[in-house]
Write a structure and sequence with these properties.
The chain is an alpha/beta fold. It is built from 21 helices and 14 strands.
């Protein structure tokens, strides 16, 4: 099948979020073709370039979210009236209360949660159809009309209480950030040669990344899968109160933006065929934002276990008196509590040592926090020496991966007998999983998905409680047999739940399930607009290159025969003849012989693109062999068509 992978600020760029797991997913599903639709967050990210893409990536299309240039579209009176109507409905839905539409938050009298959600969705898709007709809405979304619509919605009876005090500067900031989020409305990704041609859209996060998937579902009926390893709405609530330009966002503007992102998240979950959180913590956020429990399937992130195999399966060489902390140094990790806890550990175990391994977070805040922690460690633990004229070592060390003491990440975990996590805010604790792969027992604070990850293979204490953290560390330092049992159980749990293989297998199963339940209904019509029954044969879904005899085109399009492809449910903007699409083969059931090399399931891409990884059935002979090959290929529901023309890699 062909998957439209939707990303924001990550894959296929060298830097950014979700880059690693997306690359592993695409490489692990070589039997499918992937079209990448990526939104970049900065000019620097675009300048850094892409990672090396596997051959099953047949197309990459990108668009910037960081630029604010007007699209230059000129709108007539009717278009401006339609924009004012749709944007006004969108603003009223946003100002109707919290994301659940509760009356206590100032919901509009008489409006239920479903009615407000319907109004938001109708306004969103109305704006999308207008953008498709008019060539973009970037300028309109920042216009005075948009600001006035927001002002009227904030002043309306029953509006969101926190937004009633919004002034014009606040509304200008809101309009600017809403336009940035809705910028995918103005893209040309939704035609029959774009997202309209894929079998499934997979959004790697919510927010702007999922918006193209919503529009592909609206225009072409393409099912949507949404994966969130970090819930976008949660990140919005916990993030810095600044706009993309670095200006502080005032409280009324933050309330409006929170309501807008809540509405968008609810609409995304409502329209998605399946929602896959990365843990139960993210799942609770999604359910609170309106996701249907029946649609949710937890898929844990996959990590490469082989890099830790020599540590987890090797003999124990760790210092039995050493605690290790590994991660990014920032205030959320609460190293201050860890240092105070270690002071109590030293009172009980004088030989104990603490190794803090990691680099400061980006920006001045990370460097400042690291300096503060170093100063605190020097004050709590003066250098140990035998005499006043000698120089001793501090029992707390700050180290970095790649340095002389710790050259690799696995070595960081082998440096101690117990791995500690002291965070006050945590999503999915990657460092704990790495420690589990290394067979190390852990002491962690009860935040985020910590309890879900470690199960019963480690000790958990309340956050911001140095004494409880110290007691748990001392208990494990004094009991080597317990450490060994917990470490072995931790490694077994990590190998069962958190490997790349389980992640790829889970998504492969979900892909097949969605496509089987929600197939894209593309209706082929002739020049007169009449439907052609049986025009798309079963062979169209069998992987292979059928162009050897001239009957099938390498680009994935049918040979010229004067037919056209229309969407199963025509969108509101389509008033006229069906859209020109894929021509049909005059005899689609004329199948090449099994010995024909054209049956070999390897489709050639455009210049610079590799071959799609598909099953090779060229050696099959006889009717039964062909049937077996087709059954095997059909079970993968593969689609080896490679798009040609502009946008092909």
């Amino acid at each position: 099948m062909r998957i439209g992978l939707l990303t924001e600020g990550g894959y296929p760029y060298v830097s950014g979020e979700a880059r690693l797991w997306c690359d592993r997913l695409v490489r692990g599903l070589g039997q499918h073709a992937f079209d990448i639709y990526a939104l970049s967050r900065s000019e620097q990210q675009e300048d850094e370039g892409w990672v090396q893409l596997p051959p099953q990536v047949s197309r990459v299309r990108t668009a910037p979210l960081w630029t604010a240039e007007d699209d230059g579209a000129a709108h007539g009176r009717r278009a401006r009236r339609r924009f004012a109507e749709h944007y006004g409905d969108l603003a009223r839905a946003v100002c109707a209360g919290d994301s659940a539409g509760s009356a206590t938050a100032g919901g509009i009298p008489g409006d239920t949660s479903e009615e407000v959600a319907d109004r938001f969705g109708s306004a969103l898709y109305g704006l999308a159809e207008l953008a498709r007709e008019e060539g973009g809405l970037v300028g309109a979304l920042r216009s005075e009309t948009a600001v006035r619509a927001l002002e009227r919605a904030c002043r309306a009876p029953g509006a969101l209480r926190a937004a009633r005090g919004a002034r014009v500067p606040h509304l200008l900031s809101v309009a600017s950030q809403v336009e940035r989020t809705l910028r995918p409305l103005s893209l040309d990704w939704y035609e029959d040669d774009g997202l309209g041609s894929v079998d499934l859209c997979h959004a790697t996060s919510g927010g702007p990344a999922a918006l193209p998937g919503l529009l592909a579902r609206h225009f072409s009926g393409v099912p949507l899968l949404v994966t969130e390893y970090g819930v976008q709405l949660r990140a919005h609530y916990l993030g810095a109160h600044e706009d993309p330009e670095g200006r502080t966002t005032p409280a009324p503007a933050r309330a409006l933006l929170a309501a807008f992102h809540g509405r968008l998240a609810a609409e995304t979950y409502r329209q998605a065929a399946v929602v896959t959180p990365g843990n139960t913590h993210a799942r609770r956020w999604q359910e609170r934002c309106g996701a249907d429990r029946a649609k949710i399937r937890t898929v844990y992130p996959g990590m490469e276990a082989s890099r830790f195999a020599h540590v987890g399966e090797g003999a124990e060489h760790a210092d039995p008196d050493t605690l290790v902390w590994v991660g990014r140094i920032e205030p959320a990790k609460d190293l201050v509590s860890l240092l105070h806890a270690f002071a109590e550990v030293r009172a009980e175990e004088p030989k104990a040592r603490l190794r803090i391994v990691g680099a400061p977070a980006d920006g001045p805040e990370g460097e400042t926090y690291l300096a503060h922690c170093r100063a605190l460690a020097a004050r709590l633990f003066p250098d140990e020496s035998e005499g006043v004229h000698a120089v001793g070592d501090n029992p707390v060390s700050f180290e970095a991966i790649g340095g002389p003491e710790v050259s690799t990440l696995p070595e960081a975990y082998t440096a101690g007998a117990v791995v500690v996590l002291s965070s006050v805010v945590e999503g999915f604790p990657i460092s704990l999983i790495e420690a589990m792969f290394c067979g190390r027992p852990t002491v962690s604070t009860d935040v985020g998905a910590v309890v879900e990850v470690i199960g019963g293979t480690g000790l958990v204490v309340p956050p911001r409680d140095p004494r409880a953290l110290a007691e748990a560390c001392v208990a494990l330092l004094r009991d080597p047999e317990r450490r060994a049992r917990l470490g072995a159980a931790a490694r077994a749990r990590a190998l069962e739940l958190f490997t790349v293989e389980q992640n790829i297998t889970a998504f492969h199963s979900i892909y097949l399930d969605i496509v089987s339940r929600c197939p894209v209904q593309r209706v082929v019509v002739d020049d007169a607009g009449e439907p052609l029954p049986f025009a798309v044969p079963a062979e169209a879904h069998v992987p292979g290159r059928w162009a050897e005899s001239g009957r099938w085109a390498e680009s994935g399009r049918w040979a010229e025969s004067g037919t056209r492809l229309g969407a199963g449910r025509p969108p509101g903007w389509a008033a006229g003849p069906p859209v020109r699409g894929v021509p049909l083969d005059p005899d689609p059931y004329d199948m090449p012989a099994a010995s024909d090399p054209g049956v070999a399931a390897v489709a050639a891409g455009a210049a610079g693109a590799g071959a799609l990884g598909e099953s090779d059935v060229s050696g099959v002979s006889g009717v039964s062999g062909v049937e077996d090959a087709m059954a095997s290929a059909a079970s993968d529901v593969s689609d080896a068509r490679v798009p040609a023309g502009e946008g092909a890699r």
